[in-house]
Amino acid sequence: MPTLAPPDSHGIVCALSVERSGFRLDVELQIRGQGITALFGASGAGKTSLLRLIAGLERGRGSLYVLGECWQDDAKRIFVPVHRRALGYVFQEASLFPHLSVRENLGYAQKRRHSEPASVPFEGVVDLLGIAPLLARMPANLSGGERQRAAIARALLATPRLLLMDEPLAALDAARKADVLPYLERLRAELSIPILYVSHALDEVARLADNLVLLQHGSVVAAGPLGDLLSRLDLPLAVGEQAGVVIEARVAVHDAQHALTRLDFGDSSLWVSALNQPIGARSRARVLARDVSLALSPPGPSSILNVLSARITELRDQGPDRVNVRLLVGSGEAPLLARVTRRSRDELGLRPGLTVYALVKSVSVTA
Amino acid sequence: MLSAADASAVRLTLELASLTTALLLLLGTPIAWWLARTTSRWKGPIAAGVALPLVLPPTVLGFYLLLLCGPNGAIGRLSAALGLGTLPFTFGGLVVGSTLYSLPFVVQPLQNSFEAIGARPLEVAATLGAGPWDRFFTVAVPLARKGFITAAILGFAHTVGEFGVVLMIGGGIPNKTRVLSVAIYEHVEALEYSDAQFLAAGLVAFSFLVLLALYSLRADSRPS
Amino acid sequence: MNRRLMWCWSSCLLLLATPTRASEVSVAVASNFAGPMQIIADAFAKKTGHHVTMVTGATGKLYAQIKNGAPFEVLLAADDTTPAKLEAEGLGVAGTRFSYAFGKLALYSSKAGYVDTAGAILGQGGFQHLAIANPKLAPYGAAAISVLRELHLLEMLRPKFVQGENIAQTLEFVVTGNAELGFVALSQILVSGKAREGSYWLVPEQLYPALRQDAVLLKKGEKNAAARALATYLRTESARRVIERHGYGLPPAPSGEHSEAPPHASK
To answer: Which domain range does residue A281 map to?
Structure first.
C-alpha cells in the first residue's frame, strides 16, 4: 500500500500546521476511529484551531485522512472543501439559524446529508437529544441548553462520519451544563462515529472522554487513553485541584437501606451514593488526588467508607509543600492519585513499591 | 390636473425607478458581498469608488457620462461599435446613470447587513453540507433581509428623486427621458407653480406612502 | 436665548441691512452676459472710481432673489420680460429700462465643416440629435423653435430634439459631441471675438423674434448715483464695443440722454 495513503481506515491521521501572527500550531496525531477524544488544553493552546483545520474551516499545511478518506493532502494537492467533508460541527455558542425554526434547522441538515437517511433517523436523533417539544419553536425562544441540544441534533442529521464539538458547554451556566451533559453521555454510548471534543474543563473531559489529546502552545504534549494520561504525574494534568483519575467500574451491589451502590473494578470496590443503574452496568468514577489520603495500616473504626489497598509506583513533588503520589489499586492495573504533604511523605517514608492504604474521602460518579 | 406630458413623466419615472432598483440589487449584491467578506487590498479603493456618488454632485457624474459615453468618448465608441448606440438621451442611459448614482445607497446597507451576519452562520451551513451558492441563498440572503429591504427602499426612492444626472444626460425628451423631477423643475422655472405643486405634492405623497409601506414591512419582519 | 445673544444677533442683522455706500454699486447679471460685463465693470470702475459688485445667475433666479429683497441695484437680464415685470411690480424704477444687447442665435457643431454657412444641414438630416435650450425656459430655445418653424422643419426635426435646461447645457451637449449640432448663443461660441473650434451658421435675425436683453435700475439703487452712472455707462461707445465683440447685437446708438432706450411694447 502506498505510504501516502495511510491504510488506517479506522481513525484520523493528521499532520497539520498553521502559522498566524504570534501563534503557531503544529500537530501530528493519530486518533482512534471511535469514542470521544478530548482535545484538552488551556485557552490559546490551539484546540479550536486544530478542530477548525480538521473541519476545513481554516486552511493549514499538511495532510489529513479521516476513516480512510483523504480530506487534505498538500503533496497531492487535495483539499476537500468543508461542505464536502462528511462531518458534523457543534460550535461553542448557539449557532442555530435564527431565521429558521428548530424543525427547519434540522431539515436544513437533513436535506444536505452526507449519506442515506436511514443511517440517522430523524425521530431517533430527536429522541436522543430530547428536543421533540422544541421542534416548532424559533431559536430565539430557546434556552441556551435547548439551543445546544438542537444544534447537536442538527449536526447528527447531516449523517457525519466524524463529529467535531468545540466546547459545546462553555457558553452555558452550571445548571444548563447539567441539562446537556447527560445527552452527551448518551451520544457516547449510542453513536458509532468518532467524536472530537474540545474542552478546557477537566471535569467535563473526565466525564465524557475515552481518549485525551493534551495540547500546549500549539503542539501535542501527550495523547492516549484518558485513564493513562490522567494518572501520569509528569503532565500538567497532575497540577491543580482537578488532578485525579477516572476508574471504569461496574455496578455490583445496591444498598437500598443506606442509599449506596458498590462499584467493582479489578479486585477492588468503591461505595458511592446510590446509582439508578442496573447491576452490571458500566460506570465511571472520578477520584480527585486531593480527596485521597494515605495510611500505612488500615485505619480503625472511621467514617470513611472507602479504603483501598494500593501500591505506590511513583512520587513527584508538587510545589514546596505537596507531593503527588501515583498508586495501583489492589493487584490490578487501576491507577489512583493521592496528594499528600512532603512532611507526611517523609514521616510515613512513602516510596515506590510500598503498599499503603488509600483513604478515599469523596467519589463522583459520572455514568 | 395632470397633463398627458406630465402623466407620461410619472409613468416614465416609475419605470425608471423600478428597473434601476432591480438592476441595483442585481449589481449591488455581489459587490456588497465581496466588500463584506474580502480581505483583499483592493477593498479600500473599490469601496471608495462605490461611495463616490455620495459626495460628488450628480452633475459631475452626468458630465463624465456625457463625455465618456458620448460618440467621442471611449465607452461611447465601444457601445456604438457594438451596435448599441450611445447612452445619452436614451432611457437606457438614464437607467445606467441612475444605477451608478444610486449604487452606494444599495451597496452600503447590503454590505452592513452582510457584515452583521458574520462568518459563523456561513461556517455552520458549510459544515452542514451547503456549498457556497447554497450558503449564500439559504443563509446570507434571508439573514440580510432587512438590508435588502432597506437597499430597495433607498435605491427606489433615490432614483425617483434623482435629478442632476437625469438632467445632464437625459435631454428632456418626452416619453423617453423627461422624468418627474425634470418636469417639476421645468414647471417651477416656467413659473407654472400650480402644475409644479400638483406634481411635487404627488411625489411627496407617493414617496411617503412607499417608504411607510416598506418601513412597516420591515418592522413586521420576523425577529432575527 | 439670553438677552445678550439676542442683542448681538440683532446688531448683526442691522449691520447686514446697512445700505451700500454711494461709491459702490451692486449689479445682478444674467449668466450669459457675465463675461462682457466683467470687462465693462472693470473699465467703469477705472473710469469713475465706483466699485462694482457683480452677482451672476439665471434671470429667473435673480428675479426671485430681487423679489425676496436681495440688495441688487441694477439688473442686466437675459430677456425683456423680467425687467418689465419688475417695473410693473414696483421693484424697478419706472422709465429706467433699456435694451443693452440683442442675443444672436447660431447653429453650432463642434466638428469643423459640419454646419454649412447657410444652415442647409438642417434640411438634409443625417444627424441623430439636435440640441436646443428648453423653449419653455430659455429665450434661445424659443428662438430656435421659431427658426425651425420658419424653415418648415419643426415637425420633421422635433424627434431629434434634446433639450438643455439652459443654453449653457445645450452648448455642453454639442461640445461633448453627444448632439451633433445645436442652437446656441453666438456669444457662447465667440470668445473675445474668436470662434470656438467647429463650425456654425449665424441664423438670420429675421427668422426669430429679437432676443432683447434689457437692463433696469432697481428700487434699491434709485438713490445711488453710482448705479445710475453704470446704467449710463452701458450705453457708451466703449461698452458697446465690448458687447459687440462678445457676439451680441446692439440697440440703435443713443442720440440723447433719455431717448436712447427704444420704446417697449408692453406685454
So the answer is: 244-365
